[in-house]
Amino acid sequence: MAKAKQTPPKKSVQAWEQAWQQHWEQAGFTPYELNLPENSSVGRERNFLMQRRTPEREKARLQRISAEFERGFRQLSPLGPAVTVFGSARFQPGHPYYQLALEVGRELALAGFTVITGGGPGAMEAANRGAHEAGGRSVGLNIKLPHEQEPNPYVDQTVEFQYFFIRKVMLMKYSCAYIVLPGGLGTLDELFEAATLIQCGKVGPFPLVLLGETFWSGMRDFLFYMVEQGVFAPEEIGFGRIVDSPKEAVEMVTRSLPASILEHLTPLDA
Hints:
GO cellular component, one term: cytosol
Number of strands: 7
Number of helices: 10
Shape: globular
Pfam family, one: Lysine_decarbox
Organism: Pirellula staleyi (strain ATCC 27377 / DSM 6068 / ICPB 4128) (Pirella staleyi)
Protein name: Cytokinin riboside 5'-monophosphate phosphoribohydrolase
Strand content: 5-15%
Family: Belongs to the LOG family.
CATH class: Alpha Beta
Radius of gyration: 21 Å
Mean pLDDT: 86
């Protein structure tokens, strides 16, 4: 017997629609270059408002991308075994999730891992801080934003990036495991990037741990709903272990890694 179709609460639908309208009313023109014929009326208007794509500009962009990749490889290749911690930039000291990130950074450092984050505030700062205060190595891969995100003060090394996609490559490439704390769109993007790379055999398999049972339970329920809709096979959704304990998260990482990585760890005295 087919299941009855579930409809979302009317209040949720109205709130989503209102948020969508407000977002696009405020968005304005995109600053991205458009490839429009210069002699068309639309092309001339858009050229007045923003740059057009040209082969020269694309070549210059490619050179900037290549240079940024090379700089990232050069600065990060000396790292030993490292774990990337993802999470929201919005949690302030004293928030339970800030404390959770602080503890996981400390546990990773004690186990001998370098802690890598996006280098910003919130959960990123907390994970770097936990590693730094425990005497471990702490690295931040900072992104240049219009509102100038500054690196947090707990990193031993900062690498700055102009391009989100290059930064994300570095966050994935130089880690042997990923721990994901509660976060927003950026955190979800990083989580599913890691999950997709692992699922497709492009990296690892590396441990992927989601920290915060209550926060991630809604996502777990939605993924099971997606299984019912046929977009996932049941065996494909177990890509990340969900735990509440930072110590358990780090122990799971350590248990899951091969001896060839573990032999390079130098645990710190607690």
